[in-house]
Structures are given as structure tokens and as C-alpha cells.
TrEMBL record:
Keyword Repeat: yes
PANTHER family according to UniProt: FIBRONECTIN TYPE-III DOMAIN-CONTAINING PROTEIN, TENASCIN
SMART domains assigned to the protein according to its UniProt record, in alphabetical order: FN3
Annotated source species: Candidatus Coprenecus stercoravium
Domain Fibronectin type-III: 33-118, 146-232
Region called Disordered, residue ranges: 128-152
Protein name: Fibronectin type-III domain-containing protein
Lineage: Bacteria, Pseudomonadati, Bacteroidota, Bacteroidia, Bacteroidales
Biased segments, Acidic residues type: 133-147
Keywords tagged on the record: Repeat
Domain of life: Bacteria
Amino acid sequence: MRSNFFRWAVTAFATVALVAAVSCNKPDEGEPAEAPTVALTLGTVDSTSFEVNVIPANADRVAYVLVNSGEEVPAADAILAEGTAVDIADTVTVTISDLTPETKYTVAAAAANGETLSAVATVEATTLKADGTEPDPGTDPDPDVPEGETPAVTIGDVTPAINTVTFTYTAENASEIAYVIEESPGTNPGAEAIFSKGTVVKVSDAAITVENLEAEGTYVLHLAARNGDVYSEPNRKNFRTLSSGATTDAQEFTFTEIKSQKMNSNGEVKDLTIAFGDEEGNELKVTFKCNLDANSNVAAGTYSVSKTYLDAGDIRPGEQYAPSSAGFAYLTTAEGVVTAITGGSMIVSEGEIAFNFTTNVNSISATYKGSISVAAVTSIGSTMTEDMTITFADNAVCKSMGDWSDEIRLSITDANTEMNITLMRSGSGIPIGTFGPTTYEDKNNDSFVMGQALSKKYVNGQYIPTISCYYSPSKPNNSSVNSLGTGLIYTTDAGEVIACPAYDGEITITETEGVYTINFTLKDDIGHTFSGSVDVEEAE
């Protein structure tokens, strides 16, 4: 006896790949092959066999394999190499025979169009009892999932590589989840659309790997869960695959210099970002929390990559925002390939630092001879390494970025220099007088607003600092990034960008026949001075 009801029940668990409504004809010579797809639907189910409908599109090869319950579903290339080939047609019905009654099976299929492979499609079926009746209630639906309860699903770790991504998830009150990966920005499908278009799998603790992605691609992962006819809210996460230049081989470096240091937080526990460089032009940037020893050096010990990033000894992991930016902890090779650090440790000992890191694709080992002194680390983003005298060109332009009754913001620029000056004063227009430092909270009259450098502008493949206003650590205010402070960004003839935020010093402004002379002697927070003079007319 065959059961229509049971066929309906197991069909509900079929994983159906999106079938593109396009021709299966091969492309003309020289044209890129269209992406193949394959879908599976369940046909008649018996005690020792069942039928599967194989529906390919844009394919010149299709194959399938039978997977026993609990076994891993093979990748597309393995299915095509080792599976049973299927004739190319609109729909081909195959019969899977010699099966065990009351047993769950999975059929997995893949298609190819030239060298282009499809995603893997799967369908599950449980054979009937030996007498042809329905099997005893089992895992369809999952008996551990309360019937009718609303399911929920949350994306966990998303680990992109060059052409793949692996993700984890947690689900509640759900027997199945489904996922779709789209090129960003995506279409934001609802939960039911994710199940109808995407790949459906039973809930488990196993990580899921998706293949055949483009290198340096920007994608959105859409995930949903269901419990019978009840669907969860979709969960989504953006990610980027790595550059095709990223290597899977282990890398070793010997760093010889500290290229830059930044104090992100200057509390009892320091929050530092240190960039180590070698003679070939490779750079390793590490953001970590630490205590200091009696000599104001980073304390000895083992520092480990930590997702929580709360305590001394934690290293903040990188995240691949773009092929040219990974943030926090990452390696930039001399060839410009950027790879986020996602695991491992940094061991600080007397006179030496050893790095043993992992990325999403390889491992990195490195050493640096020396210690890290924190006595002169900026907390406002200065990249100055010595005192500087700034000479503006004769054609420097002064523009007003805002003029209020108590504040004026000026921007003075030429080919190499962009200087911001924010002055607190009464009246209007450019004021005359001498101005010392103030914070944006205090806004003392006849003062300039101190600055900090933030990397905000993305220009020609790199983040360029901008000068915004400084808020004292005792009065944090994230709105500081939206207000201008005082300082300048200087670009050398060699293209090096130097950030000079003003933490202290003096600005004097005089006026003769409508021409304003601005003299400045300013300092960052670690004692470097930048000074100069510029003549401007009333701000445009």
C-alpha cells in the first residue's frame, strides 16, 4: 500500500534549488557559460524504493548519489565524478531501489555547464513499512520541537575564504532551516521565499559550507527556520570573500620595525593598535588590550584573539570588510593583499614578540625583536613622527564650513594640505586674537576646539584620516565624529599621508586691509609640533 499523505509529508522536507526559467542550450563560442541549476522533487515512495524527479537547467552534465541518514552530503564536484549520471532532459524520473523499509535516505544531485558547477540539491525520503503502511512517527516533524511554537534562527560565525563561505547558526523550536546567498545588496526575501528558493537542511550543530562564490565578492546570507507551517523571521548577514591573491600556504615573516602606534583607550587597561613592518613591505596590524610593566612597556604574556575583546590579554579579531580593509587585526602583504586575523596568539617576552596567527585560509608565523613602549603612543590618531613646519601655497583657499554666533569652522586647503580650524568666539566672521585649546564639551570662548584624526574617507584604495573634534575621555560622546576639530592632514610629495590633530598650542589671527594672517604653533598629544602661517581673505 502506498500513502499519499506520507508522500506529502516527506515532500515538505525536500530541498529544492531555484530552477532558472532559461534554455538548456549551450552558449555561443566565447560567451560565458550560464550557471547551471538542478532541482529534485519526490515521487512515489514504497517499502524498498522511491522515485525522484531530477529537473536540470543550463546543464550539460547531471548526476546524483544516495546518502544514508547521518552521512555527509558530498560536494558538487564529487557528485559529478562519482555519482550516477542522468540524461539531460526537462525532467528525468529515477527510481532508487533495494532499500531498507522504514529508513530515511537523502538523494543529492549536482549539475555542470562546462566548468561551472551548480549548488547541490537534496531531497529526503523515508521508506514505508514492509507491509506498505506508513512508518511509525519519527523525525518528520521532529518530535523534540513543540508543535505550533514559533521558530527562531540566528546566524553565528561567518567565515569567508576565497571562493567559499562557512557559517554556523543556532535555531530554536525549528526542525529545518533554509538559506540563500545573494550578491549584495540582495532582495531581502521573506522566510517562505528563502525556503522555496534556497537550500533546506535539517537543524543540526554542523557548520554549513557554500562553494562556487566569486573572489572579492560582496554577498548577503539569508537564513530562516520553520516548524511545520510556522516560519521564523529571516536573519541576514553581509560578508565579503577574500582576494584571489590570498594564499592558502603558511606564511612566515621577520618584522624589523614598528611602523605606527595608536592608543585607542588610555585607561588602566590600555587598548593599543600597533603596526609591525618588515624590509619587504609586509605589515601586520594588531589591536589588543594590555597592562604595562614598570618601564611603560607592554607587559609580558600571551595575548589571544578573542571575539568578546573585554580584558587585558585579548586581541581583537579582524573582519574582512573589503579586499583592501580588514580592520583591527590583519596582514597586508607587499603585494597589497589584505587578510583578516581570526585566531591565534601573540607571545610577548623580554626583547621579543612571537606571532602565531590563523586567518580564514592559512596560518601566519612571525617574530619581532624588541619591546613595545607605550610612553609615547597617541590617543588622538596622530601619525606625526617629528616636528613639522607647514608652508601653504600662495593659492591656498579658505572656506567657511559653518558660521554661528558662538563658533566658526574654517577649512584652508592647497594641493598638499587640508587644515581645519574650529574657533569659539562671539560675533560673526573670522575673529581677531589669540586662541588656546578647549574641548567641544567645554567650548570656552576665544579658544580653538581640539582635534582627533579618524580614518573615514576611502580614497584610491586606502582610508584617509579626517580631522574631527576631540571629546575628553571623561565625557565621551560619539557625536564627535560629526563635528570638526582643529588640525591638518598633510600629504608629502611621495604620497605619504600625515595626520596632525591639535591637542595643545596656540593660534593667533591678525587682519590688515581685509587680509587675515593666521599663525599657528600646535602640538599633538605626544609632543610633536606643527607650525606655520597662511594669509587668507574673508572665508568664502
